[in-house]
Amino acid sequence: MEESNAQRRAKHRARLNRLRTQAACHLRKWISRHGHTVRAEFLQGVAYKLGSGAVTLLILWWETRP
After folding, report:
1. Which of 25, 28, 59, 61 is buried most deeply by CB count within 10 Å?
2. CA 34 to CA 48: how far, in whole Å?
3. Who contacts 58 (Cβ-Cβ below 8 Å, separation ≥6)?
4. Cα dihedral angle (43, 48, 53, 54), rounded to 10 degrees?
């Protein structure tokens, strides 16, 4: 007999929760292993895309905001 939609949704939700948990665990391990923070990674990505002058302005704004 075919599964009901509710049972299929529950299995799908459980699979997504498991994948989300595994991804979060992987990212936490990677960050701790490399000693990076989200803020540092963000600024490094901005530096790559915009150049150092724009990053300097961004850092100054970030540090001086209330």
Report:
1. 59
2. 19
3. 43, 46, 50
4. -60
Please give the pLDDT value at position 11: 85
Torsion of Cα atoms, 39 then 45 then 30 then 23, to 10°: 90
Contact 43, 58 (CB under 8 A): yes
Which pLDDT tens digit goes with each residue over 37-54?
777 777 777 777 777 777
Q: How far apart are CA 27 and CA 37, in angstroms?
A: 11
Q: Confirm if 32 and 48 have CB atoms less than 8 A apart.
A: no
What is the model's pLDDT at position 1? 47
